[in-house]
Amino acid sequence: MPARTVLQQADISRAMTRIAHEILESNRGPDDLVILGIPTRGVTLAGRLGSLLADFSGAPIAVGSLDVTMFRDDLRRNPTRAPSPTRVPPGGIDGRTVVLVDDVLYSGRTIRAALDALGAIGRPAVVRLAALVDRGHRELPIRPDFVGKNLPSAQNERINVHLVENDGDEYVAIEEAPARGAGE
Fold this sequence. Notes:
Elements: E1 4-8, H1 9-27, E2 33-37, H2 41-57, E3 62-65, E4 97-105, H3 109-121, E5 126-134, E6 146-150, E7 157-162, H4 164-167, E8 171-176
Parallel strand pairs: 2-3, 2-4, 4-5, 5-6
Antiparallel strand pairs: 1-8, 7-8
Helix pairs in contact: 1-2
């Protein structure tokens, strides 16, 4: 089955704008907000969100990244990718509202690892989750607070997010995942 594009660049921009407004409304403004992206595309989306939030609120927004590689529970099963740096903004996360940002929410395991990684660097007052795409199939009781698009999908499908900064083009597509063992 060929890839099916489900979001274009304009759709992604609208979703990010809506998420930014929802974050500001939920937080009652920009005070004490920290936006942390989960590598790789979550970091890009966090940067975009930080810019939108700053534009809408007129206040600077702390943006950073949170590598979860060493906190994952599947390191033995999956080949490890090289860890990315964790960049905590000045002022840290203690007592602040942290919004974790990821491109696709699937099983919830990456977010569980992110919560463990957060605990290793500080104690936020509140942790929220923003995902560009929620595809369902949760294995853990984790739910996003802010979602760009709910895309129910079959487990044999893959959601591919392409962002200009990472990939040179911008869209979200659903395609059939390769069979296990193929190409590994």
